[in-house]
Predict the structure.
Amino acid sequence: MTVYSKIFFILFFLFSCYTDGQTVRAISTAEQEAEYQTNKMKKDLKLDKEQIAKVYKINLKYAKLRRISNTRTEAIKRIKMKNDEIFKILNKEQRKIFLKKKNLHKKIA
């Protein structure tokens, strides 16, 4: 095996082992995706147990819907509907954090 062949093999191996977050999410199940999103929100928003259960249910619902159809128009609608559902179960302080993280501009009720 020549030096170039060895280098090519090593580089090929390294790049084939590398995966980014998009690839990992693309092969994960709806349940894994919902759990990941819920855990992130739990940490960021300091959700209580009741909120965690509701957020997980919402995240799972939309993770399953995303797998059925993923056109850009439908994705935008789904994201808006999901954000609206989650927004309703958050308290005022959590809503501020949620909007800041999502970069949304919505009046906080």
About this structure: The chain has six helices and no strands. The mean pLDDT is 82. Residues 28-102 form one domain.
